[in-house]
Amino acid sequence: MKVLFVSNDPTIFDADSAARARMRAYAAAIGELHIVSAAGLGAREAHEGNLHLYPVHSWKLFRVRALEKRARTLILEHEIEVVSAQDPFEQGLAALRATRGTNTKLHIQVHTDFLSPWFVRSGNWRSPSVRMPLLNRYRRELADQVLPAADGIRTVSERVKTSLIGRYGNRIAEPSVIPVAVDLTVPEPVRLSMHPAFTFALITVGRLEPEKRIEDILAALKLVVLHYPMVGLFVVGEGSERRRLERMARSLGIEDKVVFLGDRPDARGLMKNAQAFVQASAYEGYSRTLVEAALAKVPIITTDVGIVGEVFKGYEDVLSVPVADPTALSLAIVGFIEDNAVRQEFPRRAEAAARAHLAAQGNLAERMKDDLMHTLRGV
Fold it and tell me: Measured between alpha carbons, how far is 227 from 82 in angstroms, rounded to an integer?
């Protein structure tokens, strides 16, 4: 089978990246895989056996057109049978346009819970306001155009599948659920930075972008340290919101309780030395970081997003709280501080749930190949 991915991940051009390794596995299962993706000027075309990578260098304003043009050329040159776009937004639109007038089937992957109300909502009276991209409203409109035209749809969780069926009904192909790959290898613990005043260390890991709502964790921490001054927060990750979050920590008077560590390749090792992992995301399609935290056996506090309820049960495996509710987050943190038995039991249950979930998924590359084959055959 000859397949073209229209990707939104520039890290595939890094030969040592995890994304590149996944693409090699996909190529081995599929037979012949071509990938076109927007990338920086340093990215170069690469060919590894039956895996072929093509960077597109373009300004954002013209990116859809550039991706469409390159994808169209590859479809005709290589007789591509299925084009799979890695989101139903800009990449999906480029793929849809590229396949028009050809016999090539269109397959769309949905990794984001874009139908969550929080995809476009900035906050409420209980929480700080975040700057959600105005582009998200336009992206919903793009998805409304792209998904009904797709011959096959892959989602990463039952939550996302249910939301799509609720909005589109029988106007779309029935979505499949193929989760995100997670490395089962659990690294050795990595010591957190020396902060002797932090006898109860919280950690959050992820991109510092609006949808992660790190603001809510900072607001919750402000409430907690009034009564538990030994609590501190380590923030692992980089993104456009870092300076804003640093300013917020200063304005709340908790800058000495928050340590921004930046991107860390050893994030999973750092988790193992924390007393609790906290995630405050507005929405998640899957949330690989939750699975990684569970494998690291760290107690988890999370908003009700992604695979919460599907893989992890609230108040049995993890402490689950509503989105945009710093008070609820603070109470969950205090719950773990004061109840050592719960703090010991929840990680055991979460790890067991994560391992059972991963064991049930089988070979994800083979499942992806089968999904693309079903799209090709019109199943």
Answer: 58
